């Protein structure tokens, strides 16, 4: 899954009501299939395994789970949902209460999808429609997720950066965006500034072609190679979106230089949906984010990386 639900009409819905609880709560965070997952309760039922996705504008529930819990019997509506690979029409249901790490939100709109197509083994996705109401600490090295009703969880020795788009449109209120620098491969001295979407739901980091070309790359460059299956998601066809692979020399984030890594290059529709299609931009995936603990403040006003 590159980006399950980048931005959805439900992101414009009124904020779900909060159920009061302790100010700080934590829960185990594991990565069984390259996506961070945690236990979630829907209407107080048995724990379910959900991907925790900072770049999903909507919470998602697997169709079979929704049917077994009776979520679809309370009425549905169809809406157009925008994902990494394009748009598709999906049913939406109302969930009375969604609980993550002991923190609950009430009256949450959820998109119904077949999770086997998106993230096999997951029962759903917790999006930033829920996460943006808390300060969140992702500590993937130590397998821990912390939610705080304060601005952000307390943490020491960290480097912070404000949201790169403070005037972003309302539907992107929960998206954490950073200004960073890309470093070309060992055979190149190229560097490029880029806007980065912090996306824990993306298994692999993705550059758009504006970012790749800023590093001097083209589809014909011998340093890039075509990915056989492209990139797939909610709306992609059998062939997926045309995608290339490239070994990036690294990137500079607040207080942290990321070592070389393989990334994808693709002009995914999500870049247009997030208004980043006309400039160098990247989806900063879990392949990078799992290396360092980080916090996102309530409302995604800033992102902080903790010292290693």
What's the CATH H-level homologous superfamily of the largest domain? Acid Proteases
For the terminal residues, how far apart are their CA atoms?
A: 27 Å
> How many H/I helices?
6
> What is the alpha-carbon Rg in Å?
18 Å
Tell me the strand order in the biggest sheet.
17-18-21-16-22-15-14-19-20
Second-tier CATH architecture of the largest domain: Beta Barrel
Give the overall form.
globular
Judged by helices, strands and strand pairing, the structural class is: mainly beta
At the third CATH level, what is the topology name of the largest domain? Cathepsin D, subunit A, domain 1
- The domain count comes to 2
Helices and strands, with pairings:
Blueprint: E1 7-8, E2 17-19, E3 24-28, E4 37-42, E5 48-52, E6 59-62, H1 63-68, E7 77-83, E8 86-100, E9 103-113, H2 115-118, E10 124-126, H3 128-131, E11 135-139, E12 144-148, E13 158-162, E14 177-183, E15 191-198, E16 206-207, H4 209-214, E17 225-226, E18 244-248, E19 250-253, E20 256-258, E21 261-265, H5 269-273, E22 281-284, H6 286-289, E23 294-296, E24 302-306
Parallel strand pairs: 5-10, 6-9, 15-22, 16-21
Antiparallel strand pairs: 1-7, 2-9, 3-12, 4-5, 4-8, 6-10, 7-8, 8-9, 11-12, 11-23, 13-24, 14-15, 14-19, 16-22, 17-18, 18-21, 19-20, 23-24
Question: What's the short version?
Answer:
GO terms for molecular function: peptidase activity. The chain is mostly beta strands and 308 residues long.
Can you offer a commentary on this structure?
Keywords: Hydrolase, Protease. One of its GO terms (molecular function) is peptidase activity. The chain has helices at residues 63-68, 115-118, 128-131, 209-214, 269-273, 286-289, and strands at residues 7-8, 17-19, 24-28, 37-42, 48-52, 59-62, 77-83, 86-100, 103-113, 124-126, 135-139, 144-148, 158-162, 177-183, 191-198, 206-207, 225-226, 244-248, 250-253, 256-258, 261-265, 281-284, 294-296, 302-306. The chain has 2 domains: 26-148, Cathepsin D, subunit A, domain 1 (Beta Barrel); 160-233 and 241-305, Acid Proteases (Cathepsin D, subunit A, domain 1). The strands form 3 sheets. It has a 9-stranded mixed beta sheet. The protein contains 6 helices and 24 strands. It is 9% helix and 40% strand. With 308 residues, it is mainly beta.
